[in-house]
Specification:
Radius of gyration: 24 Å
Strand order of the largest sheet: 3-2-1-4-6-5-7
CATH class of the largest domain: Alpha Beta
Helix content: 40-55%
Number of helices: 12
Number of strands: 7
Shape: elongated
CATH architecture of the largest domain: Alpha-Beta Complex
Distance between the termini: 14 Å
Oligomer: single chain
Length: 318
């Protein structure tokens, strides 16, 4: 434990906080991190707040930057590009996550030479904050990612994470909103990065502080992101499934025509025959696209892997 503490003290640690209208909570979050991780530099990236978030954060001693483009994904993109550190700890500025486990998350990253540690939310009885719809949606979306991309993540949508430098600097960050957590998870899975999880209490927001997450709108955007990543990262599976569907529909249209053709040599329902032929051609085209894009994806993954390996891991900082 003493060696881990020494290594943590020798590392550059950045606490990065994406914020939008968190005037009521941000000062407490900053103060809690100063107690839990006094060696860390705290950065607040304000996403065009309409309240005094930036002013309060600056008064609390944090380094404050402004991000004009709306959306958490846009903020994360700027944070990862602008901040230089060996270990990055990212969480929300709304006081819902347990800051006291921050050191445990960072030490786990160092001790096990990981690239990402996720703080998995455990309900502390604040059902109004972690609503049933959010829990169900999280289980559904996390399960979908596990089935498509593999891995053993239990809380894919958690905003409490610790990253290595090579994770941060190899992450493309294409999402613009709350679907950024999905991208972070899939990035780790696709590059087969070593990751871990630590349970952390998830509490209620301070009074007069409102959640920016919309259960249905953002849930639908996250689902669209999963499907997009499925198409981009698993093109052969995606287009093979589409090809099989089109082929089965084509066969379904062709079956009633076959006995009549065998008996008379004629195809009286010519439009149906043309439709069946067109669907089968589309099925073959979809399968061909899947094969082609699979080769492109493999090449792109190799380039991302090389970029990832070009950055030293946390184990080499000591």
């Amino acid at each position: 434990m003493q060696m881990q503490q020494t290594r943590l003290a020798d590392s550059r640690i950045a606490v990065i906080l994406p914020c939008y209208n968190e005037e009521k909570a941000i000062a407490r979050v900053i103060d809690d991190f100063r107690k839990s991780l006094p060696e860390a530099v705290i950065y607040v990236f304000d996403n065009n707040s309409t309240d005094r978030t930036a002013e309060v954060a600056r008064a609390a001693g944090a380094s404050v930057a402004q991000v004009a483009q709306k959306g958490k994904g846009n903020v994360v993109r700027r944070m990862f590009a602008d901040v230089e550190a060996d270990i990055y700890l990212m969480t929300d500025g709304d006081c819902t996550y347990d800051v006291s486990v921050a050191r445990q998350l960072a030490e786990k990253l160092l001790a096990e030479n990981l690239d990402m540690v996720v703080g998995c939310r455990v309900d502390a009885g604040e059902s109004a904050n972690y609503r049933r719809g959010h829990r169900f949606g999280n289980r559904l979306l996390t399960g979908s990612v596990r089935r498509i991309f593999g891995g053993e993540f239990s809380d894919m949508l958690s905003g409490y994470r610790v990253f290595s430098r090579r994770f941060v600097k190899s992450f493309p960050a294409l999402a613009s909103g709350f679907e950024i957590e999905t991208e972070l998870t899939v990035h780790a899975l696709e590059l087969r990065m070593p990751c871990g999880e630590v349970d952390t209490v998830y509490g209620a927001r301070p009074e007069e502080s409102e959640s920016k997450l919309s259960t249905y709108r953002d849930g639908f955007r996250i689902l669209k992101t999963i499907m997009r990543l499925y198409r981009v990262e698993r093109p052969l599976q995606f287009f093979s499934t589409l090809s099989l569907f089109l082929a089965l529909v084509a066969i379904g249209f062709a079956i009633p025509l076959l006995p009549e053709y065998l008996a008379t040599g004629l195809v009286p329902r010519l439009p149906t025959a043309i439709l069946s032929t067109g669907l089968m051609l589309a099925a073959l085209l979809a399968f061909g696209c899947g094969l082609l894009l699979d080769n492109v994806t493999r090449g792109r993954q190799e380039l991302r892997r090389i970029a990832y390996l070009s950055i030293p891991g946390v184990a080499h900082r000591s």
